[in-house]
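Database export, one record per block. Field names are fixed; values are copied verbatim from the stored entry.
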Amino acid sequence: MTRKHQWRRVLLWAAILTLLSSPFLATFIPHREARSKELSPSELMAKAAIYANKSLVELNKALVLDKPDAESLALDSVAARDVSRALAERAANTPDSGLAGFLRKAMLAYADLANASSYTMLATPRLYEGLIEVQKALIALKECKVDKYLELYEKARTKLLEADKPLLEALSLLVSLNESYLLSPVHEEIAENLTTSVAAAAKTIEELERLYNIVQSYQDAIEKLCQGQKPSPSRLQGLASSISKLNPGNAGPLGYEEAEALSHILSLMKGQAQCNKPGTSSGSGTSSAGSRGRGGSGAGYGEPSSDD
């Protein structure tokens, strides 16, 4: 942590201790007696950090295909949104200068953190459900069952897109969050890790969507390859160019499955290319289909040494 961050946190804690124990508090929080049962700003900020940590833990579970606690997340998503709203309201009634100004900026930072956590908790169960279904779809694609892949992915796609929107909302809040106004290095670490995990989840969906669009666009060419037939040169070239732009490393927990499917398609394309060489037997395309997923890196993604 920089010396500037340390000094800012000292001022923030000074603001909390001074303003919340001073009669001056009544000048910017009206009806003090009526609000006596409400949580203090410091308590609300602590709750925001707790919800951020829970959203991080549950999202990371989904990103390794471990089922998150959907029921608990639904309740906590609402609670985190309430904390965010309460902090924003307190900040609106707090002066923006002096020690009070530091407290105001801290409350706004934690309001954004709680709001991002709410969006993340809303997205996580749908993300997990979608990834589980896409895993089945990728296995079908590796087995050259293109119709089944498209059918399974289209069912999973609804869940992925339902997760994608709140994930992007959360990411927008997190990347603009001024972490120097968080009151603890631990809270700063939580915010940074949550940003990284949310970005990874959004990138996973983006990568899977790109593959889906390619398979949908080149379904005819892939099916011909699977049947040992040769697509037109232009379709082969377009398919190869599109596959080269994929990066299974961005597919998160499904990176290996995506790489395996791409490796099989690329091996079929290689087999067809060998068929066109002078003196090469026309049966080589079919034999290459029988060795799917072996010896290939799948668009630059190295597969584990073990086989299925």
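Remark 1: The CA atoms of residues 53 and 190 lie 6 Å apart.
Remark 2: The longest helix spans residues 98-142.
End of record.
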